[in-house]
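Quick one: CRISPR-associated protein Cas5 from Acetobacter orientalis, structure tokens please.
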Amino acid sequence: MSEDKALKTASVLSFERKLDPSDALFFAGQWSKQEDPTAWQPIEVREKSVRGTISNRLKKGEVDPAKLNAAIEKPNLQTVDIASLPFGADTLKVEFTVRVLPGVGEPAACNNTAYRKKLFETVGTYLEKQGLNTVALRYATNLVNGRFLWRNRLGAEAVSVHVASLANGTATPVGVFDALSYSLQNFEDQPKSKSLVALADLLAAGLSGKHHVLLRVSAFVRMGAGQEVFPSQELLLDKGKSVKSRTLYSVLCAGQAVAALHSQKIGNALRTIDTWYPDAATNGPIAVEPYGSVTTQGVAYRQPKAKKDFYSLLDNWVLKDREPTLDDQHFVIAVLVRGGVFGDAG
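--- reply ---
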């Protein structure tokens, strides 16, 4: 093939996400009432004003003793949002749905016919040889281990996750799982129950287009009566319009504001399956991202200079027919499931 006709990445190339979670709503009730859907009351976000102390690191150069004492001795007055269980309830219920979409590797937009054809062939070869069970089992594990609960999972006495399929308008139980029996640190040494395998098979079937898959996930977290729970915190870009130091997320449900987790936060937890990057043995799973970025750590674990980032792996695979290692193939497919805009405008 001549240089001017060499296959190039499409300048317009995007993929829809294939795991589409809803927001997760918070309810309160008793641990013993898990099977009674009428026994759970919505948890509301409320305001609280507190008188705290100054504890942040002072700016460099503040050496005047008088100003220093005035700065650290004055009270820290603030208004915050808070959500908690009532004293008549010991369990948090977190409920959401997940829609599984078909067409892994099929671009939502691609302006290069030759590239689109080669991409189909590359992904098709992977699907024929490996299938989607490897990545699907990891997504399933993150559903049953309660990773999506984030801080609400820490210190819980017990966590039970109920998964049901909502196909054809009826709820069909898939399994009930003891979330604390599953580790958050790896995917290899996990109990492979029949229910977990069935859930993984269901996710794989949805991703491959064999079945329409819509799941309802209900997690029950036994925390203790009156304990604080942790919905998503809102990112306020214009802080000048808010008098609150912390604003929590809530959504309207039947006319009532209910504490909730962002769908993006649920999605991030479900795709925390990347243990194929170089530092995984010590750092544990991270969310699937093109550069392995973990903003809470300020690190990108998949650096382009190491050729372990998504773009390097995809280009070598599709454009140069250099097949990545099996682990890297799983990673590339997981990024396509994640979705995003990956065109090369250069």
